[in-house]
Input
Amino acid sequence: MKKSNIRERILYEDNHLIIVNKIAGEIVQGDKTGDEPLLEVVRTYIKDKYQKPGNVFCGLVHRIDRPVSGAVIFAKTSKGLERMNALVKDRNIRKIYWAIVEGHLEKESDTLVHFLRKNEKLNKSFCVSETDKDAQKATLSYHVLKHLNNYTLVEVELHSGRHHQIRVQLSAIGHCIKGDLKYGAKRSNPDGSISLHAYQLIFEHPVSHQSINVIAPWDEPLSII
Output
């Protein structure tokens, strides 16, 4: 799947929303690297497809980290963006990830609760005591999908939205995400990615009120099974 072929990566599109399967290594919005962000790629796609003159509206609903792949939601209208922002704020979007982690987990399924503190300078989060003044509660649940030779494929559902939450919580129980050197992985992935993928998004469409259930295909687990 080539980075430039945005049409093949569209998972869902209507008048208000567009959901795209982000490739690991892409940035979602502009940063100091100057690399073209996915936001601008989507904006150009909308402009070209619908032959819209002038500036085209494209709003970012949420982000995922640069080395992570998977489903990202953009809004094509200000109405769509405002209402999706409300869904995000009220945690009314179910976010399900797949991850390949080092080793074999002791429990087939579990709910993890930690208290995290973000270090802005290091762009990293740490597990801290509940009494830490900057601590934020982080909760996720997981279940094992498949045991691999030296790794495990797990499905993770977020119940809170903290910085690097899945990465730091899985690391905290001794199972770093494959390739995630920042959180203790033994080695990097050849392409600089980490083996974490935003696999599924489930929510009620804020305008049509239809049930939206989008799955972003992920090839990596097949390559190492």
In short: The two ends are 20 Å apart (CA to CA).
